[in-house]
Design a protein that fits this description.
By secondary structure, the protein is an alpha/beta fold. It has two domains: 185 residues, 3-Layer(aba) Sandwich (D-Maltodextrin-Binding Protein, domain 2), CATH 3.40.190.10; 300 residues, Metallo-dependent phosphatases (Purple Acid Phosphatase, chain A, domain 2), CATH 3.60.21. Strand 6, helix 4 and strand 7 form a beta-alpha-beta unit. It is flat and about 160 Å long. 41% of the residues are buried.
């Protein structure tokens, strides 16, 4: 009995120990959970962790020093001087090249001496010029060399005015100059040449202006696209040899050649035309609708752009009526314009509506059908005001025109065709637009008509206002005889107050038989020359080129009226 009681007590004690042990384990687990929760709330930076062993040992590799970049070397020959050397030197520095002695080893060599395999990287073309009113047209290279050395020419020329931009190259080509050679800043050359008519000037081709007259050298005229540049004496080439890639890069940095035939544009402007009245009768008698243009067509058509100011409408019912001022042309007479290579027609004339609005509208249709562009007139006021833009060889040209003379019945309105009426403020605004969009701006005026070489004072004011407003070439289409001309202060712009007649029937005096044809040359967006060709009218319709004595007389009268001395 006692043993049974003892065994029961022992089992109870064991049960108590087991329960106590389970309780202790439970408490321990609870404590661990609490600890883990506390630790997880702490920032990670506060938990100290032993570094994990790496499975692969990391080797520290040595750092390779950067390879120094060695600048390519360029040698410039001592014979290259002046502004050209400065330009090449600056270009080389801009490219990060090292300039070295010409005798040292170089990646590229620049020299004025041509060697085997060398490439031309610079071409500088220089020209001889006279003042605009000079009768001289050509100079021999031997005479130029002698003048450079201090010897006067047989015709009295004893001085040479040389632009700073040309001086160093001329010394290289011609040797040391004589004491009669005067070196001047480019912007002073024109004034000094005009002040001394016993002097000639030498300057870069692209520095020409209309106020200077380019002279042919050894009968080579550089205004002609096909001029024999290989035989021309005043060309300086600079050569490069060595690394082709370096040379190509350097060439792009240097100034463009001073003469680029791909950027030349010639524009011929002519005076008043009207194959009407006696002109029409003479054309019909010949049985040749191109008769009017036969003597002058080849030269007129040789220009890139050829202009006429046609004053009348073409109409099929036109019949020549003599001694009247109601004018018209037969449509077949358009062939004369086509033979002359006409591209552009000015419509500022005061006889456009002589045969009524329908005839003029059909004339515009005829121009459109033959791809003839026009300005200064149109089917309504909006079209008449439209500026004609033309681009040729990268040169941007603008043409516009206006009629200030009237009659009022010829002016276009919102509902009527005709010529554009001159309104000063509108012309000023349109010239500003043209100036912004074009390189060279041409404007034609049908202004007050006078039969004098000296222009009417009112026309002077009107034309000069156009020059001040942005026009480069201002041409008077109203004059039936040649009139004076003038230049802007810097010589870059020209006013031609009247060119006279091209195709017309006025034969009552030499003044109306005389005519001027203005040939303008543009180069890289700049007007560089205006040449005046001279004509004499024959047989009441057909101009021919003036003979030397006739040409001299025309210039005497025109230049005298211009005040050129």
């Amino acid at each position: 009995m006692d043993r049974k009681i003892a065994r029961r007590r022992e089992r109870r004690n064991q049960d108590r120990k087991f329960v106590l042990m389970i309780g202790m384990i439970a408490l321990a687990l609870i404590a661990i959970c609490i600890l883990l929760n506390v630790l997880s709330a702490l920032p990670r930076a506060e938990i100290a962790r032993a570094p994990e062993p790496s499975a692969i040992a990391t080797l520290a590799l040595p750092t390779r020093a950067p390879t120094p970049v060695i600048a390519k070397r360029i040698a410039i020959g001592d014979e290259i001087t002046g502004t050209l050397r400065i330009s090449i030197t600056q270009s080389a520095r801009d490219l990060g090249l090292t300039l070295i002695n010409p005798d040292a080893s170089a990646d590229a060599r620049i020299s004025a001496l041509e060697t085997a395999g060398a490439q031309v990287i610079s071409e500088r073309v220089y020209v001889v010029a006279d003042w605009f009113a000079s009768a001289r047209a050509n100079i021999a290279s031997n005479d130029l060399r002698a003048l450079w050395q201090g010897k006067a020419m047989s015709d009295g020329v004893n001085a040479l005015i040389v632009s700073d931009a040309a001086y160093a190259d001329l010394v290289a080509m011609l040797g040391a100059p004589g004491s009669n050679v005067k070196r001047v800043a480019p912007n002073e050359l024109s004034a000094q040449l005009w002040a001394n008519h016993n002097a000639l000037a030498v300057l870069p081709f692209d520095a020409l202006t209309p106020k200077l007259r380019l002279l042919a050298l050894d009968n080579i005229n550089l205004l002609q696209r096909d001029a024999a540049l290989g035989a021309y004496p005043l060309v300086r080439h600079i050569y490069a040899s060595g690394d082709p890639a370096l040379i190509a890069t350097l060439r792009k940095q240097l100034p463009a050649p001073t003469r680029d035939v791909s950027r030349l544009t010639t524009v011929i402007m002519t005076g008043s035309s009207s194959i009407a009245r006696t002109s029409a009768q003479k054309t019909d008698e010949r049985g040749d609708p191109t008769f009017a243009a036969r003597q002058v067509a080849e030269i007129l058509a040789s220009a890139d752009l050829t202009h006429v100011s046609n004053e009348v409408a073409f109409t099929a019912d036109c019949k020549p009526v003599l001694r009247v001022v109601t004018l018209c042309s037969k449509p077949e007479y358009l062939a004369a314009f086509q033979l002359a290579g006409v591209d552009i027609i000015g419509l500022t004339g005061n006889h456009l509506l002589d045969y009524g609005q329908p005839a003029f509208l059909k004339t515009l249709d005829l121009y459109d059908a033959n791809k003839l562009r026009y300005y200064g007139g149109g089917r309504n006021e909006i079209e008449a005001r439209k500026i004609l833009y033309v681009e040729h060889n990268g040169n941007r040209l603008a043409f516009l025109g206006a009629n200030s003379f009237g009659p009022a019945s010829v002016w276009a309105t919102a509902t009527k065709p005709g010529a554009r009426k001159y309104v000063a403020d509108e012309i000023k605004r349109d010239l500003a637009e043209a100036r912004a969009r074009a390189d060279v701006v041409f404007i034609e005026f049908q202004a007050e008509e006078t039969y004098e070489y000296v222009p009417y004072l009112g026309n002077r004011a009107l034309f000069r206002a156009a020059l001040d407003a942005g026009a480069d070439v201002i041409t008077g289409a109203q004059a039936h005889q040649p009139q004076a001309l003038e230049f802007s202060a810097d010589g870059s712009k020209i006013i031609l107050y009247g060119l006279g007649n091209l195709f017309f029937d006025q034969m009552f005096g030499d003044n109306v038989r005389q005519g001027l044809v203005a040939r303008h040359t543009l180069h890289r967006g700049k007007l560089i020359q205006t040449e005046l060709l001279t004509t004499m009218l024959e047989d009441y319709v057909q101009p021919r080129w003036a003979m030397p004595a006739e040409r001299a007389e025309i210039f005497r009268l025109v230049f005298g009226a211009s005040g050129f001395k």
